[in-house]
Amino acid sequence: MTVLERLGALRAQMKAQGLAAYVVPGNDPHASEYMASHWCEMQWISGFNGESGTMVVTMDRALLWTDSRYYLQAGIELKDTTIELMRESDIDCPKITEWLCENAQGAKIGINPEMFSVNDFAEWKEQFADAGIEIRSVDLIKPIWTEGRPAIPSDKLYPYSEDFAGESVESKLVRMREQLAKKKANAMIISALDEIAWMLNIRGNDVEYNPVVISYVVLEADKCTLFVDAAKIDTVAQNYLDFNNIDVLPYEAVFDYIRSLSGAVLYDGARVNEALFEAIPEGCKALNAKSPILIDKAKKNAVELEGERIAMRQDAAALTRFFKWLEEEAFANGQTQTEWTLMEKLHEFRAKGENFVEESFGTIAGYQGNGAIVHYAATKDNCAEVKPEGMLLLDSGGQYLDGTTDITRTVWLGGRIPQQAKDDYTYVLKGHIALQRARFPRGTRGNQLDALAKQYMWEAGITFGHGTGHGVGHFLGCHEGPQNVRTDNNPTALEVGHIISDEPGIYRTGKWGIRTENLITVIPAKQTKVTTTEDEWLTFETLTLCFYDTNLIEMSLMTEDEIDWLNAYHVRVYKEVAPLLNADEAKYLARKCAALEL
User: Fold this and answer.
1) Prediction pTM value
2) For a FRET experiment, which of 24, 298, 385, 516 has its CA 20 to 30 Å from that of 122?
3) In degrees to the nearest 10, what's the CA dihedral of 567, 571, 573, 576?
4) What is the enclosing helix (H) or strand (E) of 134?
5) Regions of the chain where pLDDT drops below 70
């Protein structure tokens, strides 16, 4: 079916149901960032392959809302589909609910409740009340996406060793049941795949870049039930689940099971979908609260943090080999390289690392102007040729059994470096260093530190639109909450064990993109000689181990303290990474880590 044919089939369903509009969000039932292709309904109906977007279809119009990361891509992929692009990052773009309130007053609109969180569904319902809009919970994609729809993955789940996790399933379940008792709840519904994987110490291959298992869990005071496709469980997995007293029921059985609950039921309305909520019996007390798993999972234990350090060394060795190859071999003898071939080569080096499983997200290799597209995604058939000149932005990461990595480095490939490029790179680097050196009292939130990474580019009249830092999982999602560093007012305070990224950037359309990213973790700060308060002070430990392209630094903009920090960091990089390299690679790394002087 073409996009036009799919829209026609959807409108026929809408007409039969008496609906004036139907909403197709880019979500799955588990509030996942990366989804199994079975649930890529927005992409299927529209032909737009971006990771973020929401479709609204009426009887005579079709509109797709997406953010500025995907404007260029959407403009290309929506051509000749009759679908209108709604640029949601633009100030004058109406929100979806605003548009529907104006264009569907007094009408019925359809929404698949499995694809909406409880909180979002309630917010939409409240906003629609004044416009007289009625929401109908209905799935209209299932009856029309009958050919070629990928099945829900059935790959095997596997136990994740306590040697890597640092805590037993029994211990985690005891803590979560303590939270149940504290909330006076009889049961908790868990639908977020990373939460399930963390709590039960299981992993899988169901979602690209994320080692999770498609499943649900209902945790009660005396039992824990995993709802999962039986095909995923082999003898080893069954023995593991039996040993940990985890019952197993079919994936689809979760709705009937919830309907059988009594007492108070705890759920996180930001992560549990509306269909699960609607299954809670009327006689139950529904308790909407932030998931205690989300909170505990974010605070990495000592074993997890040590695993992250091990993964970072493996990752740094791979990156050192890659940059050495890029500088010394990639263009030798007239060889041609593209963004795609660079991505393949980096994967080849990473895959040789001990305990490497897969990439933690799709590598962004943006050459010259493509680097200015924040979430640029080159493909084998649509990528730029890379030449031994100009700027390359490389944002990549790996999933290791030991931990998850995410790093961005921007390098100059050759030729004369424009002064603006050196200034831009240095403003980014200064902010990047400032955040890592931050010292702050306990209770500080990420948004209170955000300006540290932006201060120097602000002075120069430059800024960037994406977040400065996101949380990172442990052999789980590369992006996790609740902590982050960005302008938005996130009430979550930074705590010891939190891992966040530090990735300011400057983007010159058509010229280059510059982003520098390390992962850092919150640790207690050393006491100073003068203590003005009794507050507990915190700071960051840098986890990422990879040299910076010092050729791009404008030394006149750097301070002595910044140079000292950079030199100390490079000493540490060489000390920790060189033992993993051969003699030639170690010599290359030594050159890249050479001390700088003002």
Assistant:
1) 0.94
2) 298
3) -160
4) strand 134-137
5) 529-534
